[in-house]
Specification:
alpha+beta; Calcium-transporting ATPase, transmembrane domain; Rossmann fold; eight-stranded mixed sheet; disordered N terminus
Length: 1171
């Protein structure tokens, strides 16, 4: 920075020598930071004797910063705390096991198994067996009968395995989310001055007393007091809810708070409070986040409950929280929400989640009905057969035996249900998404919200920035217009007049952020490194090319001497800096977009450096001969100008009068070459049915030239390239409101939007998303890097922020961070997104075939032979192993380029297409034919004893073992068929690229051999001969041949096939969006469809509790206690009397939801969280 001022040295040496206590305590500073504006200034001046004295009390130097001595930093951390807010503790493995055990179907199975276990030890005397309708046991059956307990034990054992697998999956998923969260947090660095050098420090390393550099786009990581500021404006809406930007200055309001956003300007602050002592941290402590109580970190408060409790709060990442009544609805969902550490903003629920939830519920209902009918038929048949047809009396000593039969029937029924409910589905989604997210990191996509990955697969439009995304963001000045001469290369310094050269060098060096600089290359012979704003770096590079040194100028005029700075923002599109001239008066240097600055110039320097008048016609001439030719070559044109104020001091706040009558020094053309890989990526997007639009702040000619180089527009196409002004004129009515119909005429043809403001970007994105022109609703992805892109990034279905050039604010609002700022990474994200969708479909195709066959076999078998051909434990094996491992195998298929050769699926496309339905039913027909043949004619075919109508504890038969074995092997080979869902013939293509798949298929096959040969009584299996094994294998391999036959049948001819798993319709979406929170990830984790019913009851009960509590004024604790119990059980009894009290007071808890979206101007920044 600058040479240390006089008081720097003693302060610094004091830090080293004097390790005594600091001149103020944590509590003093906390109290100080709670004050605002004038109160704060008074307290600083009266109590601390000004900001400089406060710095010396904190033993820091306002210019040089802290010394960086480790002992001193450690001591500061001990005294003032670390800049870190402890997150809520993750759930332990045992808690997750307990949660998995809450599953309804599992509980029913456990109870049935225990009853079966207890009853199996009851043995009536032999002579009564005859009366009870049991065959008299022969001596060798005795041993078998003793083993009757095995089935119950095996079921319990299977349940334990299922629970452990589920819990392990949840645990590893949570671990991944936490890892992702930590990575996102580590990414955030901040500029701090230590020992006179500006360094980038991870936010957690900042200590009290640090001097931090703040600039446009930063998210403040700690509380502090301004030491020096230029035109600083802060958005404090996340803390105060006020959407207006607050001006900060030493005279009026120097208090800066953590979690607020810098919207304009720059400056330096001394850090006064970090971590849990900062304003954010205090609010967190109130919420109990640090203690891991009800509320959790990074959770968005849903405004609900009594209006008084709507005090706004804030988390360290700028997520708006609300302090809520403790018993609001959030309490219940917290447990689930915590599963997903990276929280979703409130968008309509992700497309895939919606489709899957509906499908799971539908299948669950069907399974429930089937299993109930199975049990009923079995019991009725048994009762009628025994007591009506055979006219046996009901003997009391036979009761346990009859109960044993009933329990057996009940277990068969439950087994049908277990097989019917596709619990592998949520697992497949989770595995697929988690796997994709992990792999996407390698492709430079840091996914912040899981569902963004899947939404990307449906994307139909991408609105991309130009600078840095499509171009390399390595800017260099290649042309210049100085003193009536257009130089097509950089001029040599001797050709310019010394005073003109001087003005250029000063105009660039002083009037640019001092954080922008050019450093020597890292490697020998490499390009110099550009740090800071790339456009400013290009201009500084221009100064260096003119053989001048910008450092010398900056040392002469340090930042403290700048009199007034008008920083760059999206409205001004220019930057100006005022300095005092040694001879008196002021000089202002300005730079900015050429057409904007030239409009404000009325003089220009000629060849000799003399000032000449510059009229409108001269300007038009210059635009035609200089600026347009530069722009049509794809150059960005920047004008440099100045103005002197010699007659006293003007009113600096009156910007319009200050920024006029400028004198133009030069216009430069800056080149930012297109990234070489971008044209190919855009061609891929076009093939994949995705429209790429370029939205840029650049001049329209530059934009069009770059768009042509990239291939966004091709010569001769009927596409629109508009400027922001023209765009607004076409889409707004007389009152200035956007009209959707007008917008619908424009956006389908629009390809380039130039000179656009962030509002234009937001309007365009919103317009495309809300449009009803096409047959499908558009799914829009947007890239952004600036603070002002926040609203557009949040509005988009998927927001991409730039990892290198992006500001903290943009990253906060985004769903995916591009770590290399490259457009090709977006195309990779599309590929992964489509792959997720396909993986789920593959798994669905496989899973539903298993379900359909198993349910029909169990049901018809039970009805005809009073026993399911597939036993409970066998079904559990099929269900658990096939589901869990198949979801792992099919969900981890790597993506291929062919995914980009088809159009996006669209939001309303059903999950199960006609082709898939054809495959499911086709394979089901094959499998059912085989199994029924084996059940009813297998014993003749293999010449073995029949296994049908076996008595209660009879030993396993070869007959039924063959059926079980064949069934599993058919599933195994069908798993290979399921790798393709679009009717491709070669199902083995790329099979060795997926090692997990190969491992799973092999592992399942080996396990099956072990079960059949050594499974014995628990698995109801007995050893098979080699020829029987070969027959089973042969029938299994038949699946592959049958698959080929199915794929020859054209899908079009099968008109009767229905699709299933449709998306939500428009009406439902609007209903959902009216303030209901989406079913979040945990809810989609709904491992079984039935849980929905219980959760509904749970919610009604909580609302009633809330109302009762408000009415009776009872303590909140009771309600809380009941809630936490409810959370664990997921089921709650609804007392019959409480419905009476619902009517009178329903409004407080429910009606305040819409209020959560309060400030429309900047993308609901107050009420809504930016995760």
């Amino acid at each position: 920075m600058t040479n240390p001022t006089e008081h720097a040295l003693p302060a610094n040496s004091m830090v080293e020598s004097h390790e005594g206590d600091f001149g103020c305590s944590v509590m003093d500073l906390r109290k100080l930071m709670e004050l605002r504006s004038s109160d704060g200034i008074n307290q600083i001046n009266v109590h601390y004797g000004g900001v400089m004295n406060l710095c010396s009390r904190l033993k820091t130097d306002p210019v040089e910063g802290l010394s960086g001595n480790p002992a001193d930093l450690e001591k500061r951390k001990q005294v003032f705390g670390q800049n870190f807010i402890p997150p809520k503790k993750p759930k332990t493995f045992l808690e997750l096991v307990w949660e998995a055990l809450q599953d309804v179907t599992l509980i029913i199975l456990e109870i049935a198994a225990i009853i079966s276990l207890v009853l199996s030890f009851y043995r009536p005397p032999g002579e009564e067996n005859k009366q009870c309708g049991l065959p008299v046991s022969s001596p060798e059956d005795e041993g078998e009968a003793e083993a009757g307990w095995i089935e119950g034990a095996a079921i319990l054992f299977s349940v334990i395995i299922v629970v452990l697998v589920t819990a392990f999956n949840d645990w590893s998923k949570e671990k991944q989310f936490r890892g992702l969260q930590n990575r996102i947090e580590k990414e955030q660095k901040f500029s701090v001055i230590r020992n006179g050098h500006i360094i980038q420090l991870p936010v957690a390393e900042i200590v009290v007393g640090d001097i931090a550099q703040i600039k446009y786009g930063d998210l403040l990581p700690a509380d502090g007091i301004l030491i020096q500021g230029n035109d600083l404006k802060i958005d404090e809406s996340s803390l105060t809810g006020e959407s207006d930007h607050v001006k900060k200055s030493l005279e009026r309001d120097p208090m800066l708070l953590s979690g607020t956003h810098v919207m304009e300007g720059s400056g330096r602050m001394v850090v006064t409070a970090v971590g849990i002592n900062s304003q954010t941290g205090i609010i967190f402590t109130l919420l109990g986040a640090s203690e891991g109580e009800e509320e959790e970190k990074k959770k968005k408060g849903k405004k609900q409950g009594v209006p008084e409790n709507r005090n706004k709060a804030k988390t360290q990442d700028g997520v708006a929280l609300e302090i809520q009544p403790l018993n609001s609805q959030e309490g219940i969902d917290n447990e689930e929400k915590e599963k997903k550490a990276a929280k979703l903003p409130k968008k309509e629920k992700s497309v895939l989640q919606g489709k899957l939830t509906r499908l799971a519920v539908q299948i669950g209902k069907a399974g429930l009905i089937m299993s109930a009918i199975t049990v009923l038929i079995l019991i009725l048949y048994f009762v009628i057969d025994n007591f009506v047809i055979r006219r046996r009396p009901w003997l009391s000593e036979c009761t346990p035996i009859y109960i044993q039969y009933f329990v057996k029937f009940f277990i068969i029924g439950i087994t049908v249900l277990v097989v019917a409910v596709p619990e592998g589905l949520p697992l497949a989604v989770t595995i697929s998404l988690a796997y994709s997210v992990k792999k996407m990191m390698k492709d430079n996509n840091l996914v912040r919200h899981l569902d963004a990955c899947e939404t990307m697969g449906n994307a139909t439009a991408i609105c991309s920035d130009k600078t840095g995304t499509l171009t390399m963001n390595r800017m260099t000045v290649v042309q210049a217009y100085i003193g009536d001469t257009h130089y097509h290369q950089i001029p040599s310094p001797d050709t310019l007049m010394p005073k003109v050269l001087d003005l250029i060098v000063n105009g660039i060096s002083i009037n640019s952020a001092y954080t922008s600089k050019i450093l020597p290359p890292e490697k020998e012979g490499g390009l110099p490194r550009q740090v800071g704003n790339k456009t400013e770096c290009a201009l500084l590079g221009f100064v260096t090319d003119l053989k001048q040194d910008y450092h010398a100028v900056r040392n002469e005029v340090p930042e403290e001497k700048l009199y007034k700075v008008y920083t760059f923002n999206s409205v001004r599109k220019s930057m100006s800096t005022v300095i005092e001239k040694p001879s008196g008066g002021y000089r202002m240097y300005s730079k900015g977009a050429s057409e904007i600055i030239l409009r404000k110039c009325n003089r220009i320097l000629d060849k000799k450096g003399e000032v000449m008048p510059f009229k409108n016609k001269d300007r038009d001439e210059m635009v035609r001969t200089v600026i347009e030719p530069m722009a049509s070559e794809g150059l960005r044109t920047i004008c440099i100008a100045y103005r002197d104020f010699n007659d006293g001091e003007p009113t600096w706040d009156n910007e319009n009068e200050i920024l006029t009558e400028l004198t133009c020094i030069a216009v430069v053309g800056i080149e930012d070459p297109v990234r070489p890989e971008v044209p190919e990526a855009i061609a891929k997007c076009k093939r994949a049915g995705i429209t790429v639009r370029m939205v840029t702040g650049d001049n329209i000619n530059t934009a069009r030239a770059i768009a042509t180089k990239c291939g966004i527009v091709t010569p001769g196409d009927d596409f629109l390239c508009l400027e922001g002004k023209e765009f607004n004129r076409l889409i707004r009515n007389e009152k200035g409101e956007v009209e959707q119909e007008k917008l619908d005429k424009i956006w389908p043809k629009l390809r380039v939007l130039a000179r656009s403001s962030p509002t234009d970007k937001h309007t365009l994105v919103k317009g495309i998303i809300d449009s009803t022109v096409g047959e499908q609703r558009q799914v829009v992805a947007v890239t952004g890097d600036g603070t002002n892109d926040g609203p557009a990034l949040k509005k988009a279905d998927v927001g991409f922020a730039m990892g290198i050039a992006g500001t903290d604010v943009a990253k906060e609002a985004s769903d995916i961070i591009l770590t290399d700022d490259n457009f090709t990474s977006i195309v990779k994200a599309v590929m992964w997104g489509r792959n997720v969708y396909d993986s789920i479909s593959k798994f669905l195709q496989f899973q539903l075939t298993v379900n359909v066959v198993a349910v029909i076999v169990a049901f018809t078998g039970a009805c005809i032979t009073q026993d399911s051909p597939l036993k409970a434990v066998q079904m559990l094996w099929v269900n658990l192993i096939m589901d869990t491992f198949a979801s792992l195998a099919l969900a981890t298929e790597p993506p291929t380029e062919s995914l980009l050769k088809r159009r996006p699926y669209g939001r309303n496309k059903p999950l199960i297409s006609r082709t898939m339905m054809k495959n499911i039913l086709g394979h089901a027909v094959y499998q059912l034919t085989v199994i029924f043949f084996l059940v009813f004619a297998g014993e003749k075919f293999f010449d073995i004893d029949s296994g049908r109508k076996a008595p209660l504890h009879s030993p396993p038969s070869q007959h039924y073992t063959i059926i079980f074995n064949t069934f599993v092997l058919m599933q195994l080979f069908n798993e290979i068929n399921s790798r393709k869902i679009h009717g491709e013939r070669n199902v083995f293509a790329g099979i060795f690229r997926n090692l997990i798949f190969c491992a799973v298929v092999l592992g399942t096959f080996i396990s099956q051999i072990l079960i059949v040969e050594f499974g014995g009584k628990p698995f109801s299996c007995t050893k098979l001969t080699l020829s029987q094994w070969f027959w089973c294998l042969f029938i299994g391999i038949g699946e592959l041949l049958w698959g080929q036959i199915i794929s020859t049948i054209p899908t079009q001819s099968l008109k009767f096939l229905k699709e299933a798993g449709h998306g939500t319709t428009k009406e439902e979406i609007t209903k959902d969006a009216e303030g209901l929170d989406e079913i979040d990830h945990a809810e989609m984790e709904l491992r079984r469809g039935q849980i929905l019913w219980f959760r509904g009851l749970n919610r009604i009960q909580t609302q009633i509790d809330v109302i009762n509590t408000f009415q009776t004024g009872a303590s909140f604790k009771g309600v809380l206690k009941r809630q936490t119990m409810g959370q664990h059980l997921d089921v709650k009894h609804v007392p019959s009397s409480s419905y009476v009290t619902v009517a009178p007071v329903t409004s407080p808890p429910t009606t305040s939801v819409p209020a959560a979206v309060s400030s429309p101007t900047l993308g609901n920044q107050s009420g809504q969280s930016i995760p």
